[in-house]
Amino acid sequence: MTEEIVVIPGDGIGREVVPAAVSVLEAVGDFEFVEADAGDAVEAETGEALPAETYELAASADATLFGAAGETAADVILPLRTAVDSFVNVRPAKAYPGVDALRPETDLVFLRENTEGVYAGHEDRLSEDLSTLTRVVTTSASERLAEFACDYVEDRAYDGFSVAHKANVMRETDGRFRDAVVSVADDRGVETDEVLMDAFATRVCLDPTQFDVVVCPNLAGDVLSDLAAGLVGGLGLLPSANIGPDRALFEPVHGTAPDIAGEGVANPSATIVSAAMLLEYLGYDDEGRAVRDAVESVLADGPRTPDLGGDASTEDVTHAVLERLD
Ligand code: ATP
Ligand code: MG
């Protein structure tokens, strides 16, 4: 049976790196690609950044590969995450041999709560002087994340996971999050250690090898995983997955990179590794592994795009990855 993959290049370098990743997927499997529009360009044309048809496709496909959207990013990616009912954002941050990194020993995976926290809260302007924000934390969402985290570390033979929080100050909300996550892990016999999120920021910079898998509330996961991106040498390398109960959406962590869009020099690695995560999600573990190995080998020996100090094009790098897959 041919599996269907929805492909949404979006804007900017999304239109360059997504086709690169699709050519890699074509090389390792028999997939049917359904391309859909989203972002600034389609909004300019139709008035809608996320056409209903695109939403429906993402909401019914097993897997979607997304590039990036420009000004309309919030109108595109937030509903797309809802379309797949994504409760966890998986963000690996791994340094690669041969790539300049502040901390070359970094190999982390953030499991970020993807539905609540301050991003789901209500912001209100109460007076000329006062604005407030309500933060949403439920036991059910925290438990769902924890179950996923337990499966994740069991499947990959990690010793356990860390829980980053600030429950010493936000006792009600982060306290609920921490209690729910730790209690699920205890029931499952999965080891956890707790780390205050501010202390985590310092400790991970000083020695990232102290951590493997880090479970975080929404905002903390957003900020701390970007911090880790700095440790491993840049945005062009970081993949991500938005996982829901029945389907998932994969995207590079970077945006549209307007400063280099259209020049054909964007680094396709983040999107190609996102495609490897997609393969593994669909059960093609060997193919996913092969794609990761090919990317790793190209990052080690070149060719490299300008963001990594080289002068190769997106196409050169994609070609090299395809060659090493053979
Ligand atoms: P957006 O608003 O869409 O996020 P941005 O201006 O924040 O756009 P990003 O895509 O987040 O741009 O990128 C930030 C910087 O990192 C830019 O200088 C961009 O060129 C660089 N960058 C991001 N992704 C890549 C990539 N895949 N290859 C090379 N450089 C990249
Ligand atoms: Mg950006």
TrEMBL record:
Coiled coil: none annotated. Signal peptide: none annotated. Gene3D superfamilies: Isopropylmalate Dehydrogenase (3.40.718.10). It comes from the Archaea. InterPro entries: IsoPropMal-DH-like_dom (IPR024084). The keyword 4Fe-4S does not apply. Keywords: Oxidoreductase. Residues 4-321 form the Isopropylmalate dehydrogenase-like domain. GO terms for molecular function: isocitrate dehydrogenase (NAD+) activity. The keyword Oxidoreductase applies. One of its GO terms (biological process) is tricarboxylic acid cycle. PANTHER family: DECARBOXYLATING DEHYDROGENASES-ISOCITRATE, ISOPROPYLMALATE, TARTRATE, ISOCITRATE DEHYDROGENASE [NAD] SUBUNIT ALPHA, MITOCHONDRIAL. Belongs to the isocitrate and isopropylmalate dehydrogenases family. This is 3-isopropylmalate dehydrogenase. It comes from Halopelagius inordinatus.
